[in-house]
Amino acid sequence: MSLALFWSSGKDAAWALHLLRQQGVDVAALITTFAAATGRVTSHGVRRSVVRRQAAQVDLPLIEVDLPWPCSNEMYQFAVGATLLDLKRREGITGVASGDLFLADVRDFRRRLAARHGLSAEFPLWGIRSDLLARRMLRAGVEAWITSVDAARTDRTLVGARWSEELLRALPSEVDPCGERGEFHTLITGGPMFAAPIRVDRIADLEVDGMPAADFDVAIPAAR
Hints:
Elements: E1 2-6, H1 11-22, E2 26-35, E3 40-41, H2 48-57, E4 62-67, H3 73-91, E5 95-97, H4 104-116, E6 120-122, H5 130-139, E7 143-149, E8 162-163, H6 165-170, E9 184-190, E10 200-208, E11 211-218
Parallel strand pairs: 1-2, 1-5, 2-4, 5-6
Antiparallel strand pairs: 2-3, 7-8, 7-9, 10-11
């Protein structure tokens, strides 16, 4: 089995990669969708330059899919479907994986999209309890930052905060510890799937798809 992995720039996609590699599954490439007008990951708001650094640290090619934003469901399926077909022909992938945890409608959508192109859909994190998964990732050394939040569901002051045990303890009970319902999105900068951690700086605040967000960029090494 050879898979492409939907790479959001966040912790769940990265942990899915870690588990797949532990299982001996060949991951051939990462697929990331960007808003074409901004060059940022859709919803997460992460810069293209940061995602490219992530791909280098996990030693995988990054397939960049630029989308108009807002993007219709039809346009998304066309653009991502064309990418999957290309990877199937060029790299011989047999399926596509993602870091979804428990949203059945999202899983079903991905399954239909993959099946349309003769591919399987794999969900290595599916069914793992969010609280257990979050703490498992943190114990393994995952370093992640809150990039954007749905201010209607959780506190906007979390923007830019480190995703940590302390943060998990402070979250209201109705907020998923992994942000699976869209309460927040993350940027992963370190963990067992990376050859080395990525240093980032928070350089500004912005709004992404109506959500308050932090603008992170790869840190520039200090001059000697």
